[in-house]
Amino acid sequence: MQLLHIDSSITGDQSVSRQLTARAVADWVAAHPGTQVQHLDLAANAPAHLSADALGFRTGQAASTEVQRQENALSEALVSQFLAADVLVIGAPLYNFTVPTQLKAWIDRVAQVGRTFKYTEKGPVGLAGGKTVIVVLTRGGVYSKSDAGRALEHQESYLQALFGFFGITDLRFVRAEGVAMGPDAKTAALATAESEIRTQVALAA
Known about the structure:
- By secondary structure, this protein is an alpha/beta fold.
- The chain has helices spanning 16-31, 56-59, 66-84, 101-110, 147-152, 156-165, 183-204; strands at 2-7, 36-41, 87-93, 117-120, 123-126, 132-139, 170-177.
- The model has no long low-confidence stretch (mean pLDDT 94).
């Protein structure tokens, strides 16, 4: 079994999402001995945002410059790594109501027609089904308990739409909300998230 562990927080050792993804991966490996883990740190090694030189996988045109060849190779490496994974554990903190730009840059590289989805006469069809994806969501405030909060949140809703578009149906969200609302709120949020991680890993055991 191949597990791809993705972190996107830019706050290093202070990151709540990194703490929780590490716990999720450790729990998964303990429950599934022999799991092979790859770690992709998007803050340390962020793929460049898409440019005209990086659109080879969309246009189908062969690279004509060294820059284009490098961009195509990066996109190919990322989508191949994603497709090879049976399980993904993704840390996705909420930055300005959505996911970090580093995570969005990765998404733009793996969203490839013919690889992760295709178009048919009946509409788009995902090609990356059969995976388990656990997304650890961290939020400074509380967004899930009110209509106003849910209207501002474009993190969970976006990732749910994206992975659904890829054909992934086993998508599990773990939330740690209110982590910037004082020490007590942060402690409670971490305890709730860690309990949910144990639950989600147990369901897949």
